[in-house]
Structure formats: C-alpha cells, structure tokens
Amino acid sequence: MEQSLKEDLKIQDETIECYINYVYDQNKKFHGYLSSPNIMFLISTLCLDSFKIDPIPETTKPVPPVFTPGQYRMDDVTKLLGKINLPVTKPEKREIKPMESASTDLKFKGRQSKKDREKLDMKQTLSLSPSVTKVREYKVPGVFSACHISLQTFDELWANDYFGNLVLTDLQGNLLQNMQTTDGRFEGFHTVAQDGHLIFTDKMKKEINRITLENKIKNFIKTDDWEPLSIHSSHINGDILVGMTKNEMAKITRYNKTGKEIQKMQRDNQRETLYRYPHFITENINGDICASDFYKLAVVVVNKSGQHRFSYSGQMTGRETPICPCGIGTDVLGHILVCDAFSKTVHLVDQGESSCVFYSLHNMGWRFSLACA
Q: In total, how many domains does the chain have?
C-alpha cells in the first residue's frame, strides 16, 4: 500500500519537475525577446499560437489509508504480552568494593584515554605535503593507456583504455581477465560494487551492466533516454551513483544496491544547473558527492542531500589558466584528489575547500585516471 502511494507520488513529482523546467526555459526565452529592440517583432511573436504556455499538468491528490482501531481490553493485552510483578523480598545490602580495585580501574581508563589522545594528535598532524614521492609503478597489460581505474581487491584492479579494452590485472602485471566494451573513452564508466561485481555503463545502449563472479554480463539498470557517463559504488552504503546526460542536460542519479532510483541531483537551490558533463565521479568520507565536469572545467561538490557545497576550478592555485578535471578520488582524511589534464598535475583539495596543494607529474604522461586505496 505504501509502495503504491510512493510510486504515484513519484510519477506526479517527475511530471511537475518537467513542467518547472519547461516554465524556466520559457521564462529565459521570454526575457530574450524583451531584450530585442524590434518592438514589432516582439508583438508578432507574442501573437503566435506557438508562444502559448502549456497549462499546468493535472495531478491527483492521493487517498491515504484509514486506520480503524481494534476493540480490546486490558486483560487481552496482559494475556498477549504478560505482566510485571514486584516480588516481596528483603532488599540485600550493596557490597562496597575496596579503593585499590577502583583505583586500578581508573588507571587503566587513563591509559586508554592517553592512547586515544595520541591517535587523535597523530591524525591532526597529518597535513598536506608539498611534494609527492613515487613509491611503486605497475604495468597494466592489454591496454594502451589507463583512462580509468577501479580497485577489485587490495592487489587487483580494473583498467580501460580509449579503444574500449577493459582488463583485470594484479600488481605483478599478470592479465587475469579482458573484455571489449562498446565505448572507449576518457570517462569513469566502471566501478566495483560492495558485493565484488564489476558494474559498467553502456552509453550507446543507455544501460548499466554488471559482471557476475561467474564472468557473465547481466543488465542491471536501464537509464531510458539518458546516456550514462560515469559511475561509482558508495563505500558507505553500497549505493550506485551515475552521472548522465541527455541533449544539453546533465544530472547525477543515486540508485540503491538493487538498482532502484532513490535520488537525482540536477539543479541547485537557485534552479541553476549543477552539471554539464560529469564524466568522473566519487564519494567522500562525509557523504559528499564529487564530480569532475568536463564542460564546466570544475569539480562540483554537493552534500549527500544533493545541495551544492562548492565548485573547484583551480582558483586556489594562483594560476589564471583553468583546469581540466578528469580522474577523481578521496583519501582517508577526506581530501579530494583530482587529475588536471591541462597542466599534468594532481590537485589535492580539502573537503571544505579551505586549502589546496597540487603535485606536478611532468614527464610521466597524461594524467586521466586516479584511484585511492
């Protein structure tokens, strides 16, 4: 019953949302006519039947269920749940513990508090380092470049190139699995779900597929007329975040682990569009959704409710040139790491946009992909 009412309200909500977008576009179109110096053109345009505003779509008020209370007596409740009686017994005197025992317990707790404080102090001393050191280099067989990386396990990863080759390899460079996808591009189009299945988007067929542990490809989600670009599986609750476009519109949609749509993020509180082309996406430890937008040349950050927090376009680096954000990830402290294809650097931004460090990776090739273990 509840599910049926939710489905009806969801359909009506989508209808009203489409109408709001329609009115918003008509309003922009009307203001464009007002700026025209040709008054006769404006009058003739307003007289055309094509300028008529569509009426507000009709919606129905859902009929809520009515609760009918049952008839019962106190004896019925007692028989069902039982009752509590206060036994008639003589109270016993409490045993007083010696002071030495209490003192020992207090010292133990003091040691624990000191240890916790040391952990906290160590965490607070972790700061943004001005340099980066290459610890190890891995070779990925079967691809011409690593455009996007998804971690399968601590010692296995998926990587793809621009030609649609998608491979699974270990840290020793052994090719464990390879497949050919329909789309080869610089987009984060695959991720590993909580259950270990690889999930990847198919922009041409407008669907999201999953590879089972038996290496079988199964359709998971249909995105209707929206083209899915990027995808990320939440490490917090297993939700699936998908960045997608349709014509000149873009949005990020949240699905639960079973593939049911539960949230969409498209506009901010001022009804301005949040995204234009979210081609890489990730989630921070505080639930923020961070997306690299290719056309906006910025990293767009919204909270878990979909409210816009900030957009980072390299303004904190002191450079006048914009960034081209590509691969994106977050670390254990909540820092946002994003690859800049223009300057071949990795920007490390605080989750509150209060500080930033960028690491130069010249002579190491183009930087498109990034994964944080």
A: 2
